[in-house]
Design a protein that fits this description.
Length: 487
Amino acid sequence: MTDTTPTSQTAAVDTGLVERRSIEWVPLTERRGNPKSLFSLWFMSNANITTLATGMLGAALGASFTISTLAILLGAAVGTVFTAFHSAQGPQLGLPQMIQSRAQFGYRGVALICMIVVFSLVGFNMFNQMLGAEIFVKTTGGEMNVLWYAIISGLALMLAIFGYHWIHRTQKWLTWMFLLTFGLVSVAAIFMVPLSAEQISFSGFTWVSFLVQFGAAASYALGWAPYVSDYSRYLPPETKPGKALAYTYGGVFVGMSWLMILGAFVAAAFTSGDPIGAVEQLANDVLPGSGTVLLLSALPGLVAVITVNIYAAGMELITTADSIRPVKPTLAVRMIACSLIAVTAFIGASVSSGEFLDNFGSFLVILLYVLVPWTSVNLVDYYFVRRGNYVVAEIFRANGVYGNWGWRGMVAYVVGLLTMVPFVVTTWWVGPVASGLGDADIALFVGLVTSAITYLVLARTLDLDAERAAVEAERADTGIQVVTFGR
């Protein structure tokens, strides 16, 4: 395996058109950019038809527009907190999110979390491709889903291979296009598409519909957490963590809230469960004949978010392979990893039926359950236990300071999952406590608290003084100056 650690300032500089790095540490000579770019990247990653469809889940259970909006805003506010705090880690460490998680789960142990993330990203991309194909069918009349999947995934794969900087640039350009299309339609709809009095009230409020929409919004926001720092790791280490956090939070919250609320709006206005048809009808009501144009303008956003997922899942796949057997992180390896993810999602979408679309809400709930203990352990370790002090070189060494199996993180993760079980609410099974609460789903909060407490207790056995001494020695050798949170 080639040296991927911060041993010197003379590391080769990656200045090519195509990004050559993947899971290795990003040298200081390649750190550039402004944290403002995080806003457009995460805004556009959320401003798409998939997000809009997620905002229709509450309405499907009878929630009014007002109830759905409140659940969306609260869910987005809660879920985005964790994603934003993860993003602030990227400039400080110059590492992908899951590579950094080796400090909590071990050199090999983190592979288990990586595979969960890969599974979730493939699932998201299957759903995204299905929606993209529906747009093609609606606008062209051609029932050629496999061809549409191939076009969408092929474009996304190409952009993912070009890598980090091109993804940032593309999301910035698409943000302006989105504002000119969906922005105008959204504003016009407020004045031109009326809602019934019942829809703008709390009539028919139930905790089940409210918490389903809340959980969907929270899990959607939290779903970015396992790879959010992948997209901030090229920023200079002197980047103030508060700025990286704020721009990420703003991008995710604004993009996601806007599109989910728009989804709740069209569901209320047209009593439709079809996101594509509802968007087309909304545009046509605002300006007759504009539905096709608005749908076509949504396609680049879907391709871009699939790109974000392919790129990140490729990182997780390389991390998994490297945790089993050392991998030389070349461009070819990254291309192969991204291609495998794209092909898997393409095949999955091609063989799936409409039931996958119907079960997307349940998919989001399960995703929330499995990610909550991980995010709790990672954030507690970074902000309260090790306080951002990691020996980066040791993260790349089996049997190093962080070990092959981070038993503390893994135990805390399992404890979090087990304590959530009585509180879970899915279409297949409802926990006994949740049943007693009228199917109210509070598993998120249970998992966060129990995982955090368990890890804090177990972390008392860490030799943090020895780790900090090694961190200071590494920073003195590399010249890294880390900015602490809040400065």
